[in-house]
Amino acid sequence: MAGPVEVWAAGDAYEPYIGRWSRLVAREFLAWLGTAAGGTWLDVGCGTGALAATVLTTADPAALVGLDPSAGFLANARARLDDRRARFVVADARRLPLAGARFDAVVSGLVLNFVPDPAAAVAEMARVARPGGRVAAYVWDYAGGMELIRRFWDAAAALDPAAADLDEGRRFPLCQPEPLAGLFRDAGLAGVVVRPIQVPTVFRDFDDYWTPFLGGQGPAPGYVLSLDEAGRAALREELAARLPAAADGSIALAARAWAVAGTAAAVRSG
Description:
Elements: H1 11-33, E1 40-44, H2 50-58, E2 63-68, H3 71-80, E3 86-90, E4 103-109, H4 118-128, E5 129-140, H5 147-159, H6 168-171, H7 177-186, E6 190-203, H8 206-210, H9 219-226, H10 229-242, E7 251-263
Parallel strand pairs: 1-2, 1-4, 2-3, 4-5
Antiparallel strand pairs: 5-7, 6-7
């Protein structure tokens, strides 16, 4: 069996896997932030544009910049978001190619745990926020509340104990309230708060759940593609037996994210 490879490039594959659920979280996330209309926004790690699209439709920004290291994801975002207020740029979250104290709101959705140095990313987010600006992010609760992924790894580990080492719940201890709050406080942000956001993830049938895992975008799909045909078939059967299907074949799960927000400090005068 080849080792799993994490790929973040094909937006069309990512959308049915995570993008569609991220959009539900984004709406509640922005309502919670409560930012004023007409502001300038930065979306760090914007991916296919799930959070950026929600900002454009609900927050009434004057301008939005989306940054991501994946040119493939950005191509998808540009195609989906034909809006004169938005522009998208390839960039690394740890080294933002932007002047300081520029944005009213700096946000990031489902990204921080994948950045090799999340502290550097949050420090950069705080740097480019204007004094009094909001800096905020959300990540999945991989350890428990993000059921579609949690159930996947439980099934995978039941068949292949080595799969447990790939489980995002184990790999990303950052994705819990206390580590997130500490990360934002250490970046010098004030009034840091963390809250859960839970959304329903209802699948039409088992294929609606399973097929996105064949797209190769992210840790779990990468693991699926590393399996041979027999291994994939066994995992599919194990999941089908474990998931709670209703009489009509639909599968109702839930996805919980942890959201964190703080306020950029005022610039001190000499």
